[in-house]
Specification:
Helix content is 0%, strand content 50%. Strand 5 (68-72) and strand 6 form a beta hairpin. The protein has 114 residues and is mainly β. The chain has no helices and 9 strands.
């Protein structure tokens, strides 16, 4: 068993094209020996966003703090602490911070994602 504090995991800027003010912490992943799923923590600065993109794998998101929006082809859905999001594989999506403070969420993905 591995137990750690999220705040002890270094945060790295997301440098993907279209990302603005986004940092990621790889909380549980390959280096921990996770065989099936990875847990990542994203922090988005006010006015920031993840790139608008799609990929083959699904992922699940749980909002920890802040205000934001999940953007899809159907439009925007407001996000706030406690909201959960399921993004199916192949669906174009983006997460935006619409609040005045940082937005933070957990994102779980299968091990074969990038």
């Amino acid at each position: 068993m591995i137990v750690k504090l999220a705040q002890d995991v270094p945060a790295s800027p997301v440098d993907a094209n279209g990302a603005q003010g986004v940092h990621i912490r790889l909380l549980i992943h390959r280096a921990d020996g996770a065989p099936n799923f990875y847990m990542r923590q994203f922090t988005i600065a006010p006015g920031g966003c993840t790139p608008r993109h799609s990929h083959a794998w699904e992922h699940e998101v749980y909002v920890l703090r802040g205000q934001g929006a999940a953007v899809s082809a159907d439009g925007e859905t407001p996000l706030s602490p406690g909201r959960c999001v399921f993004v199916p594989g192949g669906e174009e999506h983006q997460f935006r911070n619409t609040g005045e403070g940082e937005m933070e969420f957990l994102c779980l993905v299968p091990k074969d994602s990038r």
